[in-house]
Design brief:
elongated; 147 residues; mainly alpha
Length: 147
Amino acid sequence: MFTSDIDRKNNIKHIRNSLIGYVLISLFLIAFYKIYISFSYGQDSYYMRYMFLVSLIGGLIEVTILLVCHKNNYRPRSSFNMWNSGLALIVSGCLIEGIVSISGRYTDAEEAYFMAGVAFLILALVVAVIRLISAVRINNARLSQEA
């Protein structure tokens, strides 16, 4: 057995755990919304109702990126952390906006969460693409040296 086989198995395990984690977080957000709404005297917020989609769709995009990187034998840890931080910021913004709108008030505080979250997501994608390009170049150089 080669160490690259062990790395590939660890990558597959990491991808599977990431997908399970995103689904569980989405289910938690749905349960949180249902419980919160039951105590809100019939008030509702679209931000809270659909905040689980941020985790679910963002998680599917991240798992797709991890699968592409897996084919090139690269595990993007830094971009993975930035992506998770971006999703957490956007979900936090949805939660704050939902709580504020259910209480009948208005604030611009959540806009900072959304802007920071999108900035983290864009930065994560840029880092992942740059690192993936360099990993592909390294793999191509290795293949050309072996041939």
